[in-house]
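Work Package 4 report. The design task specified in the project plan requires that, given a folded chain encoded as structure tokens, an amino acid be chosen for each position. We show below one input record used in the internal validation round.
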């Protein structure tokens, strides 16, 4: 049974608000480490912990209240100059914020959080005990409950006796308390005055509704119920989105305009059915249809904007990650965030979390040198890692750049051969850019021994896989001694995809327009065979020709007349088709229950015909063993480097 029966909405609101607040606190802590005497930062962080503590008090999350209260007291002394920030003290504070985040995870499972780690609590108490000001005790006659809004102290009747917990709970939540809860609350004893608990406990611990006395805080519910509940909570959190009310107002206004236009069309339809076919009526009909087309397009764009979220909400977790890892490795690193206001599709933000974590960690661990190495090579001791987002046309570009040691294509090729990922003859055919792409292969790592941070060859593979799912691409640029840059290009949204409609016989298929470079006529006399494969020379570049019918496993009933020059990452080829049906902006409908290989989704044309949207990367991967792509004689396996 949930520890928060009847308080589920309050719990979810708290987790949403407090999670954002804690992420903001994390970023301010990173800034505070650079400016330890900044009173504005100290006050902001103090208020952050104070607000989280207040919300936790409403939920009776006593352990969370305790941890936040200790940390709040520490910052109270810092902002009053009663102690000074040191690197060791910052480590203790960071451990406390991580403890708060862990408790949020337990609250998300609808169970009361367990106590923070004993060493974290002990470290906080030790720091506070060494401070100048002692923590005042709360008078017995008053129970103080912190909340996000100012709350008046709640007087407790019968001073010196057990408080009426049932009345207090009803006053706070507005809900009646079951009899068993009231009975259980009567067994709670208060700590003695002057004890350690009394100096920390700022809100009374009365058991939540439906809680058994035998239950332990944070204990997991056994059986399938717990897993199912966690799953439902996760789904609920992922399906929510924050939308600016101005955008919703725009959607509402457009809906009203469409309603008026619909009424106009209904009136014109009645006139036409009554026999009025004069030029004035037809002109009015044409105007109404044109207006409806414009309004529907505007409504579609407005609805899409409601899915867009600032990527800064994702970026804000990375300064803390970079700071902790750099300190662990003994390096000096600053993460610079640029373009936090850039908006990205909500579903895309969730899928970008893992790739960006791996790339940031990779930059700090592999890319950045130690302070001694940097000084010896004439660089500043502190390295700057840049995480940038910007919109370019209908694409979002993410850049993760460092000013570190850079990557050596020769070393990467040698390591790939050593690990048996590619053969030596294959490595000799790769240029520098293709060699850099080897780091995306599963199992590849330049580390000689796996550590707690890296070395198992899975991080960059995760980057490749997740970006592929988003129909994106990754480009690597690196220069020895100057650093590396990872450029991720993503579609603006996953809901609408510009496509090129091609035909095999009479059957249309949709190709992602982002992969199409140009359309060419296929003249048989210009076709050449290279290594038994059909090729065409386009502006001096020898490109293989792959029939769409072959990719789909269909019989080729006629000689293809046209070719689509397509590019996936560093690979270019010509896809031969029978004809074209034009360009369209496809509204993607996913196939969740049944998705054939090579099909990204479906869309519906204006005539009602259903068209398959092809996943070209998956189709090409299926033919790795039979075809070769790219310039020159490339081994088939090298296709796996495409993103």
């Amino acid at each position: 049974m949930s520890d928060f029966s009847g308080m589920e909405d309050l719990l979810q609101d708290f987790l949403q608000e407090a999670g954002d607040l804690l992420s903001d606190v994390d970023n301010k802590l990173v800034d505070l480490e650079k400016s330890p005497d900044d009173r504005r930062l100290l006050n902001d962080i103090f208020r952050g912990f104070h607000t989280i503590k207040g919300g936790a008090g409403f939920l009776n999350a006593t352990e969370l209240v305790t941890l936040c209260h200790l940390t709040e007291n520490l910052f109270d002394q810092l902002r009053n100059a009663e102690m000074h920030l040191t690197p060791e003290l910052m480590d203790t504070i960071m451990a406390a914020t991580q403890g708060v985040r862990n408790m949020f995870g337990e609250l998300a499972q609808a169970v009361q959080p367990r106590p923070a780690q004993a060493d974290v609590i002990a470290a906080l108490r030790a720091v506070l005990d060494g401070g100048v000001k002692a923590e005042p005790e709360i008078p017995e006659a008053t129970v103080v409950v912190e909340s996000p809004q100012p709350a008046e102290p709640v007087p407790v009747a019968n001073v010196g006796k057990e408080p009426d917990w049932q009345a207090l709970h009803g006053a706070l939540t507005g809900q009646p308390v079951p009899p068993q809860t009231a009975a259980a609350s009567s067994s709670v004893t208060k700590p003695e005055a002057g004890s350690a608990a009394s100096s920390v406990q700022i809100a009374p611990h009365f058991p939540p509704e439906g809680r058994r006395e035998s239950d332990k805080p944070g204990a997991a519910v056994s059986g399938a119920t717990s897993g199912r509940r966690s799953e439902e909570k996760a789904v609920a959190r992922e399906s929510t989105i924050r939308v600016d009310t101005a955008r919703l107002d725009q959607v509402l206004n457009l809906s009203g305009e469409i309603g008026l236009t619909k009424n106009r069309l209904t009136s014109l339809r009645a006139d036409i059915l009554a026999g009025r076919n004069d030029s004035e009526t037809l002109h009015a009909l044409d105007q109404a249809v044109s207006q409806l087309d414009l309004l529907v397009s505007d409504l579609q764009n407005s609805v899409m904007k409601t899915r867009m979220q600032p990527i800064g909400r994702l970026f804000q977790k990375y300064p803390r990650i970079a700071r902790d890892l750099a300190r662990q490795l003994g390096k000096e690193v600053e993460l610079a965030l640029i373009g936090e206001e850039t908006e990205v599709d909500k579903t895309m933000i969730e899928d970008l979390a893992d790739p960006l974590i791996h790339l940031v960690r990779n930059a700090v661990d592999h890319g950045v040198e130690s302070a001694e190495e940097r000084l010896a090579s004439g660089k500043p001791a502190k390295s700057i890692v840049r995480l940038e987002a910007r919109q370019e046309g209908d694409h979002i570009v993410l850049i993760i750049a460092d000013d570190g040691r850079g990557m050596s294509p020769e070393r990467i090729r040698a390591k790939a051969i050593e690990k048996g990922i590619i053969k030596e003859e294959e490595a000799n055919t790769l240029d520098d850019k293709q060699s850099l792409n080897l780091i995306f292969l599963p199992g590849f790592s330049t580390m000689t021994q796996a550590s707690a941070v890296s070395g198992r060859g899975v991080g960059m593979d995760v980057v490749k896989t997740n970006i592929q799912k988003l129909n994106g691409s990754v480009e690597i640029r690196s220069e020895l001694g100057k650093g590396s840059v990872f450029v991720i290009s993503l579609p603006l949204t996953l809901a609408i995809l510009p496509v090129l409609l091609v035909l095999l016989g009479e059957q249309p298929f949709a190709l992602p327009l982002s992969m199409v470079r140009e359309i060419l006529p296929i003249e048989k006399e210009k076709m050449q065979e290279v290594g038994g494969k059909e090729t065409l020379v386009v502006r001096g570049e020898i490109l293989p020709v792959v029939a769409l019918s072959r990719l789909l496993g269909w019989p080729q009933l006629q000689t293809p007349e046209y070719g689509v020059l397509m590019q996936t990452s560093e690979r270019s080829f010509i896809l031969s088709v029978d004809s074209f049906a034009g360009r369209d902006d496809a509204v993607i409908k996913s196939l969740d229950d049944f998705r054939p290989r090579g099909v990204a989704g479906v869309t519906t044309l204006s005539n009602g015909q259903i068209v398959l949207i092809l996943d070209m990367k998956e189709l090409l991967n299926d033919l790795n063993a039979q075809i070769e792509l790219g310039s020159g004689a490339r081994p088939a396996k090298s296709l796996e480097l495409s993103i």
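The mean pLDDT is 76. Validation will be extended to a larger panel in the next phase.
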